Amino acid sequence: MTRVIPFTLLYHFSIFNIMAVIACELLGLNSLNNCNDRGGIRTAFWAEYDGIDWPTMLADPLLFDPVNQQILGYAMLGGAVFSPIVGESKNSYYEFTYTSEQDFYQLLVTFLFKGKDIARRNRLQSAIACCNVVIHIYGRSGEQRVVGIDYNGEVFDPIVEFARVTRHLDSGGQLGTSRSRDELDLGGQSFYAPLWANVPQEDIPLT
Questions:
Q1: Greatest extent of the chain over all pairs of C-alpha atoms, in Å
Q2: When you count CB atoms within 10 A of the terminal residue's CB, does the N or C end of the chain come out lower?
Q3: Residue 199: how many CB atoms within 10 A of its CB?
Q4: Kind and range of the H or E element at 179?
């Protein structure tokens, strides 16, 4: 006799098959006493998600360390490259916020660029048209984070809501109060906190 499995059960089975393999484990946590712990983003690089060869990276221990869940390098597809983002370091920052109510991380990366010019205006319009961005961040404290990819302990996955430009403030400034600037927010949602990385800046694939 053939047994018919209801669609709802098939749906739940498929969800469990792609869910995390990272299991509950309560390990020790500690605070670091680092006199050089500075905030801000020194520089960053961005590329389109589909321009990166994630399966090749996953299979190559020189490009990804699965034990420490750390990106060590990039494999690109079809001549794709990263481009630099160099904002004002003091006012450029990232925040990744998890709450149990929403059960995912809300991602925010903010850049501030001083002054105005036509080239940046046009490049920002092109960036806004992109809907799936990966950002490699070099922080002022020496840390590197990668926004735009999830790793569940076994495979790479696209994040819940793709990283993209969520806000652009084009401000001419106000005399005596503020100066002209562009403010750029990139946002998205991921199951896990963005991965750490250890990629020398000279090894980022550029034009």
A1: 82
A2: N
A3: 19
A4: none
| Cβ-contact 182, 129 below 8 angstroms | no
Instruction: Summarize pLDDT for 52-76 with one digit per residue, the tens.
Output: 999 999 999 999 999 999 999 999 9
At residue 172, φ and ψ (nearest 5 deg) are -85, -5
Which residues fall within 8 angstroms of residue 90, CB to CB, at 6 or more apart?
Answer: 40
Residue pLDDT, tens place only, 153-172 = 999 999 999 999 999 999 98
> And the tokens for 179?
């100066």
123-152: b (≥16 Cβ within 10 Å) or e: eeeebeebeebbbbbbbbeeebbbbbbbbe
